[in-house]
Amino acid sequence: MRYKAVVEYEGTSFIGWQRQHGVVGKSVQESIERSIKEFCQQSVIVYAAGRTDAGVHATGQVVHFDLKVSREDYVIKNALNHYLRNEKVSILQLERVDEEFHARFSAKKRHYTYKISNREAPLCIDLMRMWHVPKRLNVENMREAASYIVGRHDFASFRAKDCQSKSSIKTVDSIDIIAAEEEININISAQSFLHKQVRITVGTFVECGMGLYPPAHVLEILEKKDRASAGITAPAHGLYLTRVDY
């Protein structure tokens, strides 16, 4: 029986979503798999819609796994949350789904939010939940830069050097930049992204907002197809996987 779950986690506690052999630390995947084994004594593999990096948070990660035992959905959800009580992971929703469902390959769209604190004073409470950028950003310039990113492009300049994707062509469906007082939220949606694409995109927007180059320079960055031409990689702790559509 296949189950789908919506998961929330605080990413700074983990080495990322995926288990990594030879890397010190725990992954979100391992933590959930361990809770399932404690619940029903079954070893399973948990698959996720987004394989988030170390430090990246999630408020709407979607996963699936197969169980041999049959229990009510709420029983499984409550049991897993019980065994996850000492981890910064929470099962928000859980339901039985068709065997054809796959958390990663069935996904139609992934939604991310990047949070920026644009104030002079250092952060305390949100230190590992937002990127602190003390220099005042020109949000209108950032929005113009975003307009050049939306659509189907070759994003070779916006992917990590170790990205294993065979093609760097992706379609970004939408980018909304919302500014409220000292906080800027960048919402970006696409069916899929290249490794670190969102963080490199945000880093480029921030450099544009600082006045390091005009918004239209983004077109040159796209044309160069060279990672070195784009902006810095924004810190992981400002990024959230918020929703996955199916």
Spell out the blueprint of helices and strands:
Blueprint: E1 2-9, H1 28-40, E2 47-48, E3 57-66, H2 73-83, E4 89-97, E5 109-117, E6 131-132, H3 139-149, E7 151-154, E8 169-180, E9 183-190, H4 197-209, H5 217-224, E10 239-245
Parallel strand pairs: 3-10, 5-6
Antiparallel strand pairs: 1-3, 1-4, 2-3, 5-9, 5-10, 7-8, 8-9
Pfam families: PseudoU_synth_1
Family: Belongs to the tRNA pseudouridine synthase TruA family.
Organism: Anaplasma phagocytophilum str. Norway variant1
Give a written overview of the molecule.
By secondary structure, the chain is α+β, with helices and mostly antiparallel strands. The chain has two domains: 2-97, Pseudouridine synthase I, catalytic domain, N-terminal subdomain (Alpha-Beta Plaits, 2-Layer Sandwich), CATH 3.30.70; 109-245, Alpha-Beta Plaits, CATH 3.30.70. It has five helices and ten strands. Strands 1, 2, 3, 4, 5, 6, 7, 8, 9 and 10 form a ten-stranded mixed sheet that branches. The protein is globular and about 60 Å long. The model has no long low-confidence stretch (mean pLDDT 97).
